[in-house]
Each structure stands twice: as structure tokens, then as C-alpha cells.
Amino acid sequence: MTKKKVVVGISGGVDSSVAAYLLKQQGYDVIGLFMINWHDTEGTLSGDCPWNDDLIFAELVARKLEIPFHTVDFSEQYRKRVVDYMFSEYEKGRTPNPDVLCNREVKFDLFLDAAMKMDADYIATGHYCMKEMITDENGKEIYRLMAGADKNKDQSYFLCQLSQKQLEKALFPIGHLQKPEVRQIADENGLATAQRKDSQGICFVGKVDLPVFLQQKLKSKEGAIVEIPDDLALYKTNEATQVDHEALKLLSTPYLYKAVDGVVVGKHNGAQFFTIGQRKGLNVGGKAKPLFVIATDTESNIIYVGQGDDHPGLNRKALFIKKDDIHWIRGDKAIQTGEVLHCQVRIRYRQPLQKATLYMFDEGMYIYFDKLQRGITPGQFAAWYVDEELMGSGVIQS
RNA sequence: UGACCUAUGGUGUAAUGGUAGCACAGCAGAUUUUGGUUCUGUUAGUCCAGGUUCGAAUCCUAGUAGGUCAA
């Protein structure tokens, strides 16, 4: 009877601590592995060494659980695969999601490889999501990525870019638990991390002042903030009587504003530092309703804003994902050109799932929502679910 | 240049002579393993100088600044 070997990514937080604990309870041969992915403290808010405390807590937990503990340094690859991507996306005026990439490229790639080299059967993380396995008619195993049982903490979204191969090796020991239960388990078992605050901000980098962080690489440059009235003639094209290919193209095309469409209400120091839907940081007051960014133009360095969260420029019913950017976790359920899929979609972390229909065409996929969606942002991931299962995802093109 | 109007936090605006309030912006905290959103709290103001009055953002006079009409 050989025990199955699992390498747990121990981060120094409660979730991964309890994940390791539970695996040990379940009789696995557990190894703790701590990742160091970031050394710089430039631009971080907390200042000194963000991961130093994490390492100490991770070690404490490993000792308490009496499991072997190691560290690995992926910082070079993390920079290449996550941080560089971040900068390049922001430079293009898009808004990336580094943490989705971090999972695909680091935790479930580099880390997975490292674990396999240690002869592990599985890797495990403290994500709030669940894995299920089914077999198709040929007896082939298919893995399903399910939302976490704690609807408030569900982190399946961050894993929306995983493949079957990655999922095959993954275990999510706390996915069936509620957050308070996790804390309670940690507490009852004397894990030092029981009361530690949940982590926030870009994982591994920490909580940063984004504009300051980005200014390490991206130049700031003064430009105009232009307010677009809510009755622009452009918006009349928003109506669609039926949902066909042409209508989907139209509905998912962002409005192309010009400076003359509105009035200058202020100035900013770089359009790349702002994202669609953003309210704070514009420094423009005196309006009856708050201003939201409805578009950024990094070419001419103009930020377009609209008044109120119901501004027609901020809300759209459809978005588009390029063919190459479509990723299916459930490849066996992928739809082909001409097919549609009724499902539920979220376009950002923690957004309640939205009823929508996927329409596949040769050039890519259109997602048509039942209701208007606020702040559809290029660069972010749209993830589609059927019931509790994450079926696939893609980078929003427009 | 003549007549008239206006002046309130950073911005836009409320307040029969009686506690200067609201919105937006800003700041802080909460929420959040992206960006962002949201929630809560909070800083900050009567153009200037006199006068009337128990009491002036409010009434009167002069000044300053901006605007409108007349030429």
C-alpha cells in the first residue's frame, strides 16, 4: 500500500494550511512547497519584503503538520510569464488579469513540473473550487472544474485557463468547505495561520498602487479627460431587433469616440493607467453623478468618461472573443461554428453569474447577455459556466 | 465707458435675518488572491472692507473679480 504523494503549495495563508492539513488527515504523503515569485518591493504598499512573513508562517504550519517543507524560486519565470504580460497589456490599453495567468503559467505549470520531479502524484492548492471526474463512452477520464461550495469565496474563475492535463493532477482539498469552516479547522488544530488576514492584490506581488507600479515601465504622459453626453447619436445603433451575426458584431463593437464628441473636463497622466468602468482617480468633480471611464484611447492618450453607472457608453449586451483566445476546459463540450450554448458567464472575479448565450462563428465567439453588462473590458477573461461547472474561458477582445 | 446681474469647501449647487446642507472630487477604513466596482466614515466653504441688527451667506455702502445688455 503506497501512499499517494501530494505536493501542496503552501503560501502562508489559512487556506493552503488547511488544505495541507486535510490531505494529511486523508492519508496522503504530503510535502509542502513554498513558492518565491517576486523579490522587488518597488511600488508595493506594504514596503518591506512582502513574502517574508508568509515564509515564516508556511514553515510554522509545515512543522506543526510534520510534513517536509521546501521552497522554490520561480521569480525569473514569473516575471517573464506574468509581469511582462501585464505590462505589455497595459501598454496596449488593455486590462490584464495577472492572477489567471499566474495559475496557468506558474502554479499549474512550473510548480506542477517541480512537483512531478519530486515524484508526486498530485499537486494541491488552497483554492475554493472543486474537481470532479467523469468518464466518456470510451472510458476516457474527463475532469470537471466546479465552483467552490462557498459561493462567496468561489475562486474557480482564477483557474479558468487550466487544461485537462493540469486539472488531472490537481487537488482542491478545501473546495467543499465554507471559509469560516476553514478558519475553524485551522484554529482547532493550532495552525498559526488561523487568524491571518486573507491575501489581496496581485498574488505574490502583493497589494500595489497600480499606477505607481506601472510607472516603473510605462511612461506617464498628460492627456485630456473627455466627457461624453449620454444622448450621443452613436448610441442609437445600440438597438437590435434580432440576434444574428451582424447584430452581434455591432453589439460587441466598442464605440469609437473622438474628442469632438464631448467636452474636456479634466486631465490625466496616462490613459494606460485607467480601465473601463473605473470611477476613482479621475479627479474630476462637480458632477451630479459620478464619472466612469467608458473608453480609453492610448493612441491619442484620451480618456472618455460618462456620467452615472447607467450611461449608455458603459453598458453593452455583447462581447467578442477571438478564435485563438477561446479556451475550453471541457473540450468535449466545445461548440463549433454555427452552434450556440446557453450558459452563465462572468466577466470579472466575484461577479454574480450572468445568463448569456454563446454564438460561435469562424472568426471567434460572441457572448450575448440577457441583461446589459457594465464595464466590458478588453484583456479581462470571460468565463462560462453550465450550472456549477466552469466550461471554458477567453480573453475579451472587445 | 453707462446700466444691470452674480460672488458659498477643490468643483457644481442649497439655505422666509436664526445650527451653512447636498452632490461630485479628495482622503481613510471595510469588502476583494487582477484592474476595477461597491459599502462606511471623513477633511474642507460664505470674495474683501465697513455698516444696520440681540443675531448677517442673506439687508445697506464702497472695493475687487466675473458675466449680460447698451455704445
Task: Write a short abstract of this structure.
The protein has 398 residues and is an alpha/beta fold. The protein has 8 helices and 18 strands. Helix 1 packs parallel to helix 2 (52-65), helix 1 (14-25) packs across helix 6 and helix 3 (75-91) runs antiparallel to helix 4.
Properties at a glance:
nine-stranded antiparallel sheet; 18 strands; 398 residues; RNA-binding; globular
Structure overview:
There is one protein chain. This protein has 398 residues and is an alpha/beta fold. The chain is 23% helix and 28% strand. It is built from eight helices and 18 strands. It has helices at 14-25, 52-65, 75-91, 98-117, 164-168, 179-188, 210-214, 245-252; strands at residues 5-9, 29-36, 69-73, 122-124, 129-135, 141-147, 170-171, 223-227, 263-268, 291-297, 302-307, 315-322, 326-328, 340-346, 354-361, 364-374, 381-386, 389-395. Strands 5, 6, 12, 13, 14, 15, 16, 17 and 18 form a nine-stranded antiparallel beta sheet that branches. Strand 10 (291-297) and strand 11 (302-307) form a beta hairpin. The protein is globular. The termini are far apart. It binds one RNA strand of 71 nucleotides through residues 11, 13, 15, 86, 90, 95-102, 127, 155, 158, 198-204, 210, 274-280, 282-293, 307, 309, 348-351, 374-375, 377, 379-381.
